[in-house]
Amino acid sequence: MQSTTKITPEWVSAAKARDERIPALTAYDYPTARLLDEAGVPVILVGDSLGMVVLGYPDTTHVTLDAICHHVGAVARAKTRALVVADLPYQTYDTPEDAVANARILIEAGADAVKMEGGVAVLPQINAVREAGIAIMGHIGMLPQSVKKEGGYKIKGRTDAQKELLRADAVALEKVGAFAIVMELVEPELAREITDSLSIPTIGIGSGPQCFGQILVIHDLIGAFPWFRPKFAVPKADVASAIRSAAEAFVRDVK
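Below the sequence we write its predicted structure tokens.
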């Protein structure tokens, strides 16, 4: 029988010492959160990826705090055993004061912890949120909220300068008290090196198999967004085809 004990940031932080890998998935609504929880997923992210796979935006920079709160509330009402982490959206943590105020809004909406993109560059904001008693998940490597500035989604850690920055980001996040670090599109050998150097778990997405955990957007896992799929995402189902077939059958029946 699966335990009903609530997953905490401390449980995730100690996973590496237990040698217990961390599978994480996104969810943006009540039924998906319940299904993932019943499947034993320990970490559910209400990610700003909802901008593309739910709201139809071209990238995450269009997602507002109100939108994230709306979906956090839906997920929180599932009363999951899983730890519910919410993304702080684009430009909601430009200052330490903003970071604390908006992180509190997400916690009040039902999140157990928040995720913030960046390392050394946003250390004052992360430190302020931690001092306010709010658990932080870090996010380094390719930062989706910087996609316009970066000019696209690019693998990080291929140059010496990028490697040194990513190493520094990871160390800084661990020191400031992040309970885990998402590493997105980090060169796999560097991702392995960083993972081995930390006591907290790294959770990879497109960063190779040597991260301590892995996270995927649920739509990529179940094949629910057929118009685009990242190269690193291997779908385990074809939900889009099932929905299309069911709708076509319904249309035929009604006609």
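The radius of gyration is 18 Å.
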